[in-house]
Amino acid sequence: MEALDIAANVLSSTIRLSVPLLLACLAGLYSERSGVFDIGLEGKMLAGAFAGAAAAAVTGSAWLGLSAAILVAVALALVHGFASITHRGNQIVSGVAINFVAAGATIILGQAWFHQGGRTPSLPGTARFGAITLPGAEAVRDVPVLGPIYSGILSGHSLLAYLAFLAVPFTWWVLYRTRFGLRLRAVGENPAAVDTAGISVTFLRYRAVVCTGILTGMAGCYMALSQNAGFVKDMTAGRGYIALAALIFAKWKPVPAMFACLLFGFLDALSIRLQGTPLPLVGRVPVQFMQALPYVLTVILLAGFIGKAIPPRAGGVPYVKER
Amino acid sequence: MDLSRVGFVAPPIPAESGADKGAGRLMAEAAIELIGIDKNFGPVRANRDINLAVERGTILGIVGENGAGKSTLMSILYGFYQADAGEIRVAGKPVAIRTPNDAIALGIGMVHQHFMLVENFSVLENIILGAEAGGLLKGSIARARAELARLEREYGLEVDPDALVEELPVGLQQRVEILKALYRGAEILILDEPTGVLTPAEADHLFRILAQLKQQGKTIVLITHKLREIMAITDNVAVMRQGTIVATRRTAETTMEELAELMVGRRVLLRVEKGEANPGAVKLSVRGLTVEDSRGVTMVDDVSFDVRAGEIVGIAGVAGNGQSELLEAIAGTRRAVSGSVTLDGGAIAVTGHADPGELRDRGLAHVPEDRHHVGLVLPFEENENSILGYHDKPAYLKGPLLDTGAILADAEDKIKKYDIRPPNPRLRTANFSGGNQQKIVLAREIEQDPAVLIVGQPTRGVDVGAIEFIHRRLIAMRDAGKAVLVVSVELDEIRSLSDRVLVMCGGRIAGERSPETSEGELGLLMAGVEQEAAE
Amino acid sequence: MSTPYARLPAWADYGLIPLINLAVAFAVAGLVVLLVGENPFRAAIILVKGAFGSGQGIAYTLYYATNFIFTGLAVAVAFHCGLFNIGGEGQAYIAGLGIALVCLAFDQVLPWWLTFPLAILGASAAGALWALIPAWLQAKRGSHIVITTIMFNFIAASAMVYLLVDVLKPLGSQAPETRVFLEGAQLPKLGWILAEFGLRVRPSAPLNVSFLLALVMAFLVWALIWRTKLGYEIRTYGFSPKAARYAGISESRIIMVTMLISGALAGMMALNPIMGDQHKVSLDFVAGAGFVGIAVALMGRSHPAGIVPAAILFGMLYQGGAELAFEMPAISRDMIVIIQGLVILFAGALEHLFRHPVQTLFATVAPKSVGLAAGQERA
């Protein structure tokens, strides 16, 4: 019975830890599917987390926090768009720049405004997105099998977590069933075809990066307002890069993206759970090994040893009209 | 910019004296009129004072050499660029075409030289892209499917709507492009060099389709540099040279010779004088060579031939029939699947790791087809390009260091010999004209005194003056007892240069002919109808 | 269409444009300073004073600059080959292991001038190795080097934490770091040179002989790129991989050799803090220098003559930033991270923002100076 509890516990935290990855990963999907590579997911998440926590701390409203997080992340996404779409700059360089600006600015502004060494004040429950108990979760708690799964694993997450998982089918629907999705996929493969069809490549790509901004803002907000009770400096700690790895792992597709994020979230949950506890057969696994595993797996995937990840064909290349 | 041209609304008059040949009549039922169009790219005047009218329900051909401004003009018409001055009228009304959207709304459709298709989309998805019925795809797809069936019935434009574009042959991909334009209700169809990638048979099919479209009342503008196509299908023809329209003619009232003369502005020596060949020993021998492209499609299929010292062997063929891959395999820049190549009796590791550098040392020089991305490094200074591939020769080195003094002196020497202009070895290569860039490559390869020279598209994108110079150089190589292999899609060039002509089609050598063979016979070989044409 | 080919005179390309980029980056950073309620001009004065106002300040500035010269050169060499080595951070971190092995083995038996060359070898070998794997994956398997080097930064961090916590830590110690090296692995300080100029430098000031090594490397990189056959091949591949193939330059060899050099340069950065200052390998000793290298290379336009001043500028920001944090508590040293990001943004991603107007200006005022004469001849 205890093993089952531990399993439920690990799976529940898997979900919790996957949420920011998933939101960021879907964020990256919109941008990269449109042909704009984005290694600035990390920075946008971080800025979103800070803006969300700061606004929630000042106003006491989680919703205003979310709005601020989205607003700031979208602003940074537009900077990326300005550099890489309008000015045809190097998309990777632009993403790196945004990561640094966000890393520095969140600390400087946090310190200047709240004087707590870069933290924002601890948020009361009302200013956070707290756990939601799903209907009937209490009633089925003691039912075998269903109980631990429904009330122990699926129930008790924040609104943003449920939104993140709803965003998966939604993104799939947008991508494959709407005009916007058709054009988005087309512009990432052959922008010239989109241009000659009378559609503005620029406007389309800008809309894609705005989607990225919104979702990274939500990802950051989830970290600051649900997972934690405020902003701590450098709190994203590389999750933007793991999300990027997950996106590659998922070959830029929404449903596989969810599974990739759950896998990486699970590794994270496991490494927290296993800290110091020896495993049967292998003995004690260093926690660093578990932390490095998502990156190692991504490298192995990129090397083509387990399937091949083919990015959108026009990805990373600024669109220039040919004469 | 000539401001007096703005608002110039006189009827379009051919720039030449032959105005009487059709000016007044052209005004009758114009689907499109272009009046005083100017377009500059920086200092380059791509279009100057273009006046042109296209009659409804006719096919107009626009001919001109590469770089004459044909594509720019059509891009202006399609809203890809904005003219700096001038007016466009569609069905008599002045219009502003700022984006392709405006053009589409006015019933103008365009089939681009490089297809504007999303390769991993289905035919249907490509067709509705940009012309969707609403925010959701479901309705658009159903509508497009029905409409496609109608177009298929009406014009015989068959294509599987659910096939992925990347899996279709080139001819069908082009058909998708035409369908895209028709789906958008195009009344005026512009085709930019549509036959460049087609076999003669596919091209004939295309022309039948165009004739049918014309019968249905569509207006068609055909851009090409192939005079035969103009004569075969158009009603009227406009000739462009250096950004201007130098003449318009009724096709029935002109000849290929007249058009050719108008195109180049003076009578060009189509044939460079050359004496009898004096073939010696076999220098390059190709046996059973088979090459695949990156997708695993066989591009060169069991090809065998020899090139002897003191002769020029020309390989003719429609672009994309394996000539490029053949050259690359011989030059060691693309790995072959099977077969063998010997250079002066020694084997080249064509199926293994052939090293182009080592082949140079063994006397094989290669002028590649694509000088912009392969033969030259455009951001380099001229002198840096003059050693590309030979940069590890002791003459250019001092230990691990480059001997810059020797390199510059060498570059200056070649500049003199080949009359490369401007004569500045420190100038960025990108700032030279196409002809001078090609001379830089030729000078580099020829001056190393190779035993075998292989040349891809010797005069592509090269100005007329330089063509003659380049041809003379190649013949001089031959007369000096070198083995020369030339690949060109310009049949005239092949016939004029070669001592023997090999025709490639579908990756195979379809036959060997003497350069005196008629164009018609060679054309049939290129199209793959060998048996009937031969013997 | 000739503007992209218009070439600015060298002084504009390497001087004016970086200065404009820098000025804009500072202007935006100044806005951030305003936002936190401080006076940006006073901040700038404190910053410059802190960096150059005393011998001690200069010693620290050059100490930091040493790190950035190495990492800037590392990024620049890869840039010339068309590769973006974003993994300098990880390569330098792993190089710490190479140095640790050499120093722990020899600091008791050899004098510093014998340990130092061995440590250079150890550092560059470890850094090069860490760059070689992504290079090999790019060359042979087609994996995107930007992504793999990012991944390798994280893997390096995990590996070094593990090694320092579980392997290299001396018995009985709590801190995750190696033991302190003996004199045989401590590099001489260079503060005395500044003292020669009458400046006051405390013996603790960390400027050490690695700075001279960095300058030597800057010269060698210049010679490599513009004067050797290998450099010619690197540049050929960087501009046009197809032309390189045509010229008989092996793609995988050039990618791997370039990344080995790049990784080795990044690895040498570790010598400066480890042997020159801390005399031990501790957690996170790289402290972002690998990433600063990106900004330095972009600002220095991948030319050593630009990289050295750019590195000194960032050294000034680091040292002056520390002083600034002391004088203006609202501004911590993280201000530099913002400036670094802004420099990367304006000098890198937005380089066309100012380049095009400047080119147009030059083309209008002095067409000859931008090589347009040829273009007109053609038209």
How would you characterize the overall build of this protein?
The complex is a heterotrimer of chains A (323), B (535) and C (379). Chain A has a single domain, classed as Orthogonal Bundle (ABC transporter involved in vitamin B12 uptake, BtuC), CATH 1.10.3470. Chain A is mainly α. The longest helix of chain A is centred in the first third of the chain and has 32 residues. Chain A contains 13 helices and four strands. Chain B is an alpha/beta fold. In chain B, the strands form five sheets. Chain B has a six-stranded mixed sheet with strand order 6-7-8-3-9-10, sandwiched between helices. Chain B is built from 19 helices and 22 strands. Chain B is globular. The relative contact order of chain B is 0.10. Helix content of chain B is 33%, strand content 25%. Chain C is an all-alpha fold and 379 residues long. Chain C contains 17 helices and no strands. Chain C starts with 9 loop residues before the first helix and ends with a helix. Chains A and C meet through α3, α4, α11 and α13 of A and α6, α13, α15 and α16 of C.
Key traits:
B: 535 residues; alpha/beta; Rossmann fold; 6-stranded mixed beta sheet; 25% strand; globular; disordered N terminus; disordered C terminus; C: 379 residues; mainly alpha; ABC transporter involved in vitamin B12 uptake, BtuC; 2 domains; 17 helices; 73% helix; 0% strand
Quick structural summary:
The complex is a heterotrimer of chains A (323), B (535) and C (379). Chain A has 323 residues and is an all-alpha fold.
List the helices and strands and how they pair.
The complex is a heterotrimer of chains A (323), B (535) and C (379).
Chain A: H1 2-33, H2 41-59, H3 62-86, H4 91-114, E1 131-132, H5 137-140, H6 146-154, E2 157-158, H7 159-177, H8 179-189, H9 191-196, H10 201-227, H11 239-249, H12 254-274, E3 278-279, E4 283-284, H13 287-302
Antiparallel strand pairs in A: 1-2, 3-4
Helix pairs in contact in A: 1-6, 1-7, 1-10, 1-11, 1-12, 2-3, 2-4, 2-10, 2-11, 3-4, 3-10, 7-8, 7-12, 8-10, 11-12, 11-13, 12-13
Chain B: H1 23-26, E1 30-41, E2 44-55, E3 59-63, H2 70-77, E4 85-90, E5 93-95, H3 100-105, E6 108-111, H4 123-128, H5 137-155, H6 170-183, E7 188-192, H7 200-215, E8 219-224, H8 227-233, E9 236-241, E10 244-250, H9 256-264, E11 282-292, E12 298-308, E13 311-316, H10 323-331, E14 338-343, E15 346-348, H11 356-361, E16 364-367, H12 371-375, H13 382-385, E17 397-398, E18 401-402, H14 404-417, H15 434-446, E19 452-456, H16 464-479, E20 483-487, H17 491-497, E21 500-505, E22 508-513, H18 519-526, H19 530-533
Parallel strand pairs in B: 3-8, 3-9, 6-7, 7-8, 13-20, 13-21, 16-19, 19-20
Antiparallel strand pairs in B: 1-2, 1-4, 4-5, 9-10, 11-12, 11-14, 14-15, 17-18, 21-22
Chain C: H1 10-35, H2 40-52, H3 55-80, H4 88-106, H5 112-141, H6 145-167, H7 191-196, H8 210-227, H9 229-239, H10 241-246, H11 251-268, H12 271-278, H13 289-299, H14 304-327, H15 334-349, H16 351-365, H17 372-378
